[in-house]
Amino acid sequence: MIRTSIARVTPRSQFTSRTVAAGVSGLGFVRTKATLPDLPYDYGALEPAISGKIMELHHKKHHQTYVNSYNDASEKLAKAVSQSDIAGQLALMPLLNFHGGGHVNHSLFWENLAPKGSGGGEPPSGPLADAINQIYGDLGQFKARFNTALAGIQGSGWAWLVKDLDNSQVTIRTYANQDPVVGRFKPLLGVDAWEHAYYLQYENRKAEYFSAIWDVVNWKAAEHRFH
After folding, report:
1. Which of 5, 4, 50, 7 is nearest to 218 (CA)?
2. DSSP per-residue string spanning 37-85
3. 115-170: per-residue pLDDT in tens?
4. Phi then psi dihedrals of residue 161, to 5 deg
5. What residues form DSSP beta bridges with 160?
6. Among 211, 28, 29, 31, CA closest to 121
7. Picking from 7-11, 56-60, 143-147, which range would have the lowest pLDDT averaged per residue?
8. d(CA 217, CA 51)
9. Fewer beta carbons below 10 Å: N end or C end of the chain?
10. Are 15 and 93 a contacting pair, CB within 8 Å?
11. Comparing C-alpha atoms, which of 89, 83, 72 is closest to residue 22?
12. CA 53, CA 139: separation in Å to the nearest integer?
């Protein structure tokens, strides 16, 4: 039986007061700075699906901003921890979630893309392909469901193919803003539905972007994460 599943995650912080009490001090102890990852391809290598100009702005400007802002919030968190300032730690949680999530999501996103001729657009294979076919029937039906999920995002957010760690099945989930995929779900493949990912090239024709990006999706990265 073919089962289709799309779950939407409402915007919320991924952190709680229990996180502050039990784990935030660990963050302050490590104090590892995030860095902008290099891309394994040139900015123009994904054209015509994604223009070189968009890739350059998306990577060098938007992703770099998430990195810088996360590091700034982390430094402030370390100070709040050292001063046992619980209220100050709580106040920083939304910033850490947003900018840390932005950094994590984009780092995965770049790996999910590849030029044609270097794996981009080639269909999945092996256990991941079997898992997709079991739930969605075939790759074409999966893409249609995924694009429907993307189109249904109100405002900004992401659609992800994830692995449910409780049962090893795959499903489509949407996340608002920069909320990262955490907990029982493991991110396999994500598509950025923020306007900065497509507007310079596609303007308000975001459905064209959702369709074109499959030409440069790197399923090998998703297959590696699925194991």
Report:
1. 50
2. PPPSS-GGGGTTTS-HHHHHHIIIIIIHHHHHHHHHHHHHHHHHHHTT-
3. 999 999 999 999 999 999 999 999 999 999 999 999 999 999 999 999 999 999 99
4. -90, 125
5. 173, 190
6. 211
7. 7-11
8. 15
9. N
10. yes
11. 89
12. 30
